[in-house]
Amino acid sequence: MMEKNAIIKSLRINYFVSLVAVLVVLLAFELGVVQKGVLNEVISSTAVYLIQVSAVMLTVVLIPLAIKGFTASLEKSKGLPEADFLKLFCKRSLQRIFLLFIVIVLNEFVYYALGYEGALYCGVLGFGAMIYSFPTKMVLEQYLAEKEK
Predict the structure, then answer these.
(1) What's the pLDDT at 10?
(2) Are 133 and 96 in contact (CB under 8 A)?
(3) pLDDT per residue over 3-57, tens digit each?
(4) CA atoms 140, 10, 86, 61: torsion sign
(5) CA torsion angle 46 107 118 37 (round to 10)
(6) Cα(21)–Cα(82) distance, rounded to whole angstroms?
(7) What is the pTM of this model?
(8) How far apart are CA 70 and CA 73, in angstroms?
(9) Which residues contact 104 (CB under 8 A, 6 or more apart)?
(10) What is the rounded distance in angstroms from the CA atom of residue 40 to the CA atom of residue 64?
Protein backbone atom coordinates (compact mmCIF):
# COMPACT_ATOMS: atom_id res chain seq x y z
CA MET A 1 0.00 0.00 0.00
CA MET A 2 1.27 3.43 -0.91
CA GLU A 3 1.59 5.91 1.91
CA LYS A 4 -0.57 9.05 1.71
CA ASN A 5 2.47 11.34 1.55
CA ALA A 6 3.96 9.30 -1.30
CA ILE A 7 0.69 9.52 -3.24
CA ILE A 8 0.49 13.29 -2.83
CA LYS A 9 4.17 13.67 -3.76
CA SER A 10 3.68 11.61 -6.91
CA LEU A 11 0.57 13.56 -7.88
CA ARG A 12 2.35 16.87 -7.34
CA ILE A 13 5.24 15.77 -9.53
CA ASN A 14 2.79 14.89 -12.31
CA TYR A 15 0.97 18.18 -11.75
CA PHE A 16 4.11 20.28 -12.05
CA VAL A 17 5.47 18.31 -15.01
CA SER A 18 2.24 19.00 -16.89
CA LEU A 19 2.47 22.72 -16.04
CA VAL A 20 6.08 22.79 -17.27
CA ALA A 21 4.98 21.13 -20.52
CA VAL A 22 2.30 23.81 -20.93
CA LEU A 23 4.94 26.46 -20.33
CA VAL A 24 7.26 24.90 -22.93
CA VAL A 25 4.52 25.05 -25.58
CA LEU A 26 3.77 28.64 -24.61
CA LEU A 27 7.45 29.62 -24.83
CA ALA A 28 7.86 27.85 -28.17
CA PHE A 29 5.23 30.10 -29.71
CA GLU A 30 6.17 33.27 -27.83
CA LEU A 31 9.87 33.01 -28.62
CA GLY A 32 9.19 32.33 -32.30
CA VAL A 33 10.43 28.74 -32.37
CA VAL A 34 7.04 27.92 -33.89
CA GLN A 35 5.45 30.59 -36.05
CA LYS A 36 2.13 32.03 -34.86
CA GLY A 37 -0.79 31.44 -37.24
CA VAL A 38 1.16 28.76 -39.08
CA LEU A 39 -1.86 26.52 -39.74
CA ASN A 40 -4.04 29.27 -41.27
CA GLU A 41 -1.93 29.19 -44.41
CA VAL A 42 -1.73 25.41 -44.67
CA ILE A 43 -5.26 24.11 -44.09
CA SER A 44 -8.66 25.09 -45.43
CA SER A 45 -11.02 27.47 -43.68
CA THR A 46 -13.45 24.59 -43.11
CA ALA A 47 -10.77 22.59 -41.31
CA VAL A 48 -9.82 25.66 -39.26
CA TYR A 49 -13.45 26.07 -38.22
CA LEU A 50 -13.78 22.39 -37.29
CA ILE A 51 -10.61 22.54 -35.20
CA GLN A 52 -11.86 25.66 -33.40
CA VAL A 53 -15.25 24.14 -32.63
CA SER A 54 -13.66 20.86 -31.54
CA ALA A 55 -11.33 22.67 -29.14
CA VAL A 56 -14.23 24.55 -27.55
CA MET A 57 -16.42 21.45 -27.33
CA LEU A 58 -13.63 19.39 -25.77
CA THR A 59 -13.16 22.15 -23.21
CA VAL A 60 -16.87 22.17 -22.42
CA VAL A 61 -16.86 18.39 -21.96
CA LEU A 62 -13.49 17.72 -20.32
CA ILE A 63 -13.43 20.39 -17.61
CA PRO A 64 -16.70 19.29 -15.95
CA LEU A 65 -15.67 15.66 -16.44
CA ALA A 66 -12.36 16.31 -14.71
CA ILE A 67 -13.93 18.20 -11.81
CA LYS A 68 -17.29 16.54 -11.21
CA GLY A 69 -16.33 13.11 -12.53
CA PHE A 70 -13.47 12.98 -10.04
CA THR A 71 -15.78 13.72 -7.12
CA ALA A 72 -18.57 11.43 -8.30
CA SER A 73 -16.28 8.43 -8.83
CA LEU A 74 -14.76 8.80 -5.36
CA GLU A 75 -18.14 9.21 -3.69
CA LYS A 76 -19.28 5.90 -5.19
CA SER A 77 -16.28 4.08 -3.71
CA LYS A 78 -17.09 4.54 -0.04
CA GLY A 79 -17.20 0.80 0.67
CA LEU A 80 -13.69 0.04 -0.58
CA PRO A 81 -10.84 -0.89 1.75
CA GLU A 82 -8.39 1.97 2.35
CA ALA A 83 -5.64 0.51 0.13
CA ASP A 84 -8.01 0.16 -2.83
CA PHE A 85 -9.43 3.61 -2.18
CA LEU A 86 -5.95 5.15 -2.21
CA LYS A 87 -5.19 3.45 -5.54
CA LEU A 88 -8.48 4.77 -6.95
CA PHE A 89 -7.77 8.27 -5.61
CA CYS A 90 -4.34 8.25 -7.24
CA LYS A 91 -5.73 6.97 -10.55
CA ARG A 92 -8.59 9.50 -10.65
CA SER A 93 -6.29 12.37 -9.68
CA LEU A 94 -3.89 11.49 -12.50
CA GLN A 95 -6.79 11.29 -14.93
CA ARG A 96 -8.01 14.71 -13.81
CA ILE A 97 -4.56 16.26 -14.25
CA PHE A 98 -4.24 14.66 -17.70
CA LEU A 99 -7.68 15.83 -18.87
CA LEU A 100 -6.99 19.39 -17.80
CA PHE A 101 -3.53 19.24 -19.38
CA ILE A 102 -5.12 18.21 -22.68
CA VAL A 103 -7.59 21.11 -22.47
CA ILE A 104 -4.88 23.66 -21.81
CA VAL A 105 -2.39 22.45 -24.42
CA LEU A 106 -5.05 21.96 -27.10
CA ASN A 107 -6.43 25.45 -26.61
CA GLU A 108 -2.96 26.95 -26.36
CA PHE A 109 -2.06 25.32 -29.66
CA VAL A 110 -5.30 26.42 -31.35
CA TYR A 111 -4.85 29.98 -30.09
CA TYR A 112 -1.30 30.30 -31.39
CA ALA A 113 -1.45 28.11 -34.50
CA LEU A 114 -4.82 29.43 -35.73
CA GLY A 115 -5.09 32.77 -33.98
CA TYR A 116 -8.51 31.91 -32.53
CA GLU A 117 -9.09 34.05 -29.43
CA GLY A 118 -11.91 31.83 -28.12
CA ALA A 119 -9.28 29.15 -27.51
CA LEU A 120 -7.37 31.57 -25.31
CA TYR A 121 -10.39 31.94 -23.04
CA CYS A 122 -10.96 28.18 -22.99
CA GLY A 123 -7.30 27.67 -22.10
CA VAL A 124 -7.64 30.14 -19.23
CA LEU A 125 -10.67 28.20 -17.98
CA GLY A 126 -8.64 25.00 -18.15
CA PHE A 127 -5.79 26.65 -16.27
CA GLY A 128 -8.22 27.81 -13.58
CA ALA A 129 -9.54 24.28 -13.24
CA MET A 130 -5.95 23.03 -13.03
CA ILE A 131 -5.21 25.41 -10.15
CA TYR A 132 -8.40 24.21 -8.44
CA SER A 133 -7.19 20.62 -8.87
CA PHE A 134 -3.87 20.98 -7.05
CA PRO A 135 -3.34 17.72 -5.13
CA THR A 136 -3.25 18.23 -1.37
CA LYS A 137 -3.13 15.91 1.59
CA MET A 138 -6.12 17.74 3.07
CA VAL A 139 -8.34 16.70 0.15
CA LEU A 140 -7.21 13.09 0.48
CA GLU A 141 -7.89 13.17 4.21
CA GLN A 142 -11.37 14.61 3.60
CA TYR A 143 -12.24 11.81 1.19
CA LEU A 144 -10.91 9.21 3.62
CA ALA A 145 -12.98 10.74 6.44
CA GLU A 146 -16.10 10.69 4.24
CA LYS A 147 -15.37 7.10 3.27
CA GLU A 148 -15.40 6.12 6.94
CA LYS A 149 -18.92 7.48 7.46
Answers:
(1) 94
(2) yes
(3) 888 999 999 999 999 999 999 999 999 998 988 888 888 889 899 999 999 999 9
(4) positive
(5) -60
(6) 33
(7) 0.89
(8) 5
(9) 22, 123, 126, 127, 130
(10) 30
